[in-house]
Amino acid sequence: MIIDFDALEEQEIPNFKGGDGSVSAAAHVDANNRIMRATVHPHSSIGWHQHLKNSEIVYVLSGTGKVVVEGGEEPLAPGVCHYCPAGSYHSVVNDGEEDLVVFAVVPEHAALS
Amino acid sequence: MIIDFDALEEQEIPNFKGGDGSVSAAAHVDANNRIMRATVHPHSSIGWHQHLKNSEIVYVLSGTGKVVVEGGEEPLAPGVCHYCPAGSYHSVVNDGEEDLVVFAVVPEHAALS
């Protein structure tokens, strides 16, 4: 099946996971996967949270920012892939002046990595 | 963690899943996810196969082609997202004249969708 993000309703989420500002996302969700195109607006963030029985894979489409992880920070730019394995924590921060747009998948797993 | 596809060894796979020509892929693999950047070369394909306890999410980075699914065909172009839920079959075909480059995730799940 094709997931047409432009045809999905975009949800605006203020203070997502306790972060700053707002994030908007168009998502296809079933029992196994949340598949989304998400926009972290300038000076906004997705707060620090853990992925337990799921993981998250983020591929940057446009914009810049950073991911805060347990060991430090990872810069985000177009074409960068960030992976938060099951069991890990992260926070996504747009500290730039343009939208940070990502393609992201949150799959549900049976086990920790 | 950052997955740097340019730093991973790219594997060239002829007749992948019984398809035509060859596919090359740089992949990060753990117990829960196969995360890859794959190139389906012109006149090449990934053969018809089923995803059973995993699924596949494909996001087209460049090039064109199509996915053959149980109900027909889905055109691929940059920015298109194809989803093969657990339990479904698909085949990816590059019937164009340039490389079809995709970002793809194959997550392992406990259950069918």
Could you walk me through the main structural features you see in this protein, from its secondary elements to its overall organization?
2 copies of one chain form a homodimer. A 6-stranded antiparallel β-sheet of chain A has the order 2-3-4-11-6-9, with no helix packed on it. Chain A has a 4-stranded antiparallel β-sheet with strand order 5-10-7-8, with no helix packed on it. Helices cover 0% and strands 57% of the residues of chain A. In chain A, a hairpin with a 7-residue loop joins β2 and β3. The model of chain A has no long low-confidence stretch (mean pLDDT 96). Chain A has 113 residues and is mostly beta strands. The relative contact order of chain A is 0.26. The first copy, chain A, is globular. Chains A and B meet through β1, β9 and β11 of A and β1, β9 and β11 of B. β1 of chain A pairs antiparallel with β9 of chain B, so a sheet runs across the interface.
Number of strands of chain A: 11
Strand content of chain A: over 45%
- Lateral arrangement of strands in the main beta sheet of chain A: 2-3-4-11-6-9
Structural class computed from helices and strand pairing of chain A: mainly beta
Give the helix proportion of chain A (percent range): under 10%
Following the backbone from N to C, one meets helices and strands of chain A in this order, namely: EEEEEEEEEEE
Assembly state (oligomeric) = homodimer
Spatial extent as radius of gyration of chain A: 13 Å
- Unreliable spans of chain A are none
User: Which chains have the largest interface?
Assistant: A-B, 31 and 31 residues
What's the rounded overall pLDDT mean of chain A?
Answer: 96
H/I helix tally of chain A: 0
In whole angstroms, how far apart are the ends of chain A? 28 Å
Q: Main beta sheet of chain A: strand number and arrangement?
A: 6 strands, antiparallel
- Coarse morphology of chain A: globular
